[in-house]
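Structure request: Ionotropic glutamate receptor, metazoa, Periplasmic binding protein-like I, Artemisia annua.
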Amino acid sequence: MDYPNLFQIKEDESVMAKNIVALVESYNSREVIFLNEENDCGREILYFLESFQDEGIQISQRIAVPALASDDQIIKKLQKVITSHTTVIIVHMSSLLANRLLFIAERLGMVSEQYTWIITYKTIDILQSVDNEVIESLQGVIGLRFYIPASSKLLNLTARWYNECYIKHPTSATREVSILAIWAYDTIWALAESIQRLEVHSLFVVSYIDSMLLNEVSKTRFKGVSGEFRLIDGKLVSNGFKVVNVIGNRGSTITPKRRTLQKTLGENLKVGVLARRKFENFIDVSIDNNVTTARGFSVDMFNACINSLPYELIPYDDETFDDLIQKVYGKKIDAILGDSTILANRSQYVDFTASYTDLGVGTLARINHNDMWIFLKPLDVDLWLITVGFAILTGIIIFAIEYMDQGSERSPAQQIGATFWLILMTLFFTQREKLSSNLSKFVEFVWLLVVLILISSYTATLASLLTVEQFKLASKGGTLGFHGGSFVAGVTVNNLKFEDYWHKPYYSYDDYAKALSGGGADAIIDEIPYIKMFLGKYSAEYAMISSEPKTSGFAFIFQKGSPFATDMSRQIAKIRENGTLGDLEKKWFQKRSSSSQPKPKTLNFGTFRGLFLISGISSAVALSMVCLLRAKLKVHSIISFLFQNNLLATLHLLPRNAVGI
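Returned structure:
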């Protein structure tokens, strides 16, 4: 809350606006005219605009009436309504101004069956008027007022109120007590009870009396004049609304045509919860002085979707979700709040809302930090061997080219050492040896390209391995843990192809941690929401290494055919879109585990065979060219040698022949 020391003892404006929208929907209208007081609070108007927009209802005209408007001004405003084709009119203004507006509208013949007049909570006090002319002008007007259940406390307060008012103002005394007066009465009662509970403590801890009092008030829960009085997050929990239609000289309660989430209920929803859950933080139930309260991720989701609709938690100690489903089916309770999974066999008896969690099951394992040879794992064995082989081969080729190069001035031994030192240094790109042959430089360039790509790939794969590391799971005969007392032990585990493992149930997050750390289990299978909650506590040592969409996630449960399931599903979709769901996940899951990352693959020769093919062909071509050039030179020298020897021999013989002739 923005003001932690303040309590809001009134209905939330946004909730009240949504109730008006639900009332409009009950008359199947998609257009309304909105009449408001000119100096109305912009925030209240904004709530109406947003609520109508969310439900696809258009405000065809928004007409502001001055608070001190004359009759002529009001008539001009109403003439705009007459010229419009919209027949549903929302009146949101003070009772004094609404009294005059409706009186003039009745004279103009507008308070009739042709129009539907709906007055909001701000205008509803007009129904307390004792003026017959005012009552006559309200015939057929529909209003939304706060629901106060009938009780002996209410009758007693009403009688005392009337007697007090009659003594002081006999002509204007009314038997109806304002809702604000009733809330004020209950608030004083709650404060008095809180102070009474603190009498013992205040004798010893005077310095903390303010915070202790705030804490006691926030925990107050009792049956007051207004109904059940309790606070959640510093706000009064609504007892709902009722729709009133003015008929005759008084208002009568009517039932709208369509029941929605924001609709008034005569009594609170009865919501069943499991009181004992070892997998905490989804719903943690506490019972204090026969008052049941709950906290957790599922509870916050339910409250975010239910829009302050009043409900009562019914705890069950030794039951399962299947048992509670049977109670919903038998109409003993209205709904189930908790981490209940959507299953096909359960849907035969109840209706589920849309899922509010991630779908599927995951495999949880402990991170292995002790692999001393992890630096070798980025490359497969065949790739390591082929890389070393190509390095040697490239060195031999460069040596051969340099040795056959006529410009080389080194001995064979020096040339061999220099060549292989050159190949080793290319791994670090620090080679300084100069090559004399252009062909050997070409071979070195291709080899540098191979080394660059291999090192880049090796670095990326090693980084992935160091991030995710490796999770060791025995191939057969290992121990696989699962959520004890859950359906996960059955078909789900078998569908994940773990039939060869010994299955062992565990019943809490602490059991999971002890089993994985102490060797009691190689891995644990559970639904992803439980794994994410576990990782919020133990994420440094564990990780979700895989996931499968085998389950449909968690959802809320309602009676078969209940409209609440549909409306709650719509609300879940909305809070997904506006980011509320993400905020709740951050709050309860803390360090959220991302969806399981794919296991980094070891690089093999097949990935780089094209690269090595290019290197091999380049080296072969270069060596072939050197050999051909070498052979050409030798042939040329032989021919030259033979040619020179034959020419000398011929010249030597010529004189002899000449003499013989």
